[in-house]
Amino acid sequence: xxxxxxxxxxxxxxxxxxxxxxxxxxxxxxxxxxxxxxxxxxxxxxxxxxxxxxxxxxxxxxxxxxxxxxxxxxxxxxxxxxxxxxxxxxxxxxxxxxxxxxxxxxxxxxxxxxxxxxxxxxxxxxxxxxxxxxxxxxxxxxxxx
Length: 145
Fold this sequence. Notes:
Layout: H1 3-28, H2 32-37, H3 39-67, H4 75-84, H5 93-108, H6 115-124, H7 126-142
Helix pairs in contact: 1-3, 1-7, 3-4, 3-5, 3-7, 4-5
C-alpha cells in the first residue's frame, strides 16, 4: 500500500475522531438555549466542525491528486469533482457543498456565525460526515494504489 493511501486512512481516522467528539457534545446538550449560553462549548463545536470539514476537504484533494482528476476550483468544487467521478452519491453532494460554504463562514466571516445554524448541524448533519467517511473508505478498498 502506498504512503498516500496511508495518509488518506489517517485523515479518515482523524475525521471519525472529530465526529465522535461532536456527537458526545451533542448528546450532552439538552437545548438550543443551553448551547447558545455556553460560549466555551460554542467555540469548541465551531472549531471541531471546521476541523471535520477541513479533513473532508483534505481527503478529497488528496484523492483527486492521487487519481489525476480535474483540479478543483474551490472548496465546494472538491466535492463536485468527487461526485463527477462517481465517488460521492449525488444526494450527498449538496450537503457537502453546504458544509464547504459553512466552513468559509467560520474561517472568513466568523462575526456572522449563526448559533442556530451551528446547532442545527450539530443536531442533524453529523451523519453527513459519517457517510462521507464510509464512501471514501469503500472507494479506497476498491482502488488500492
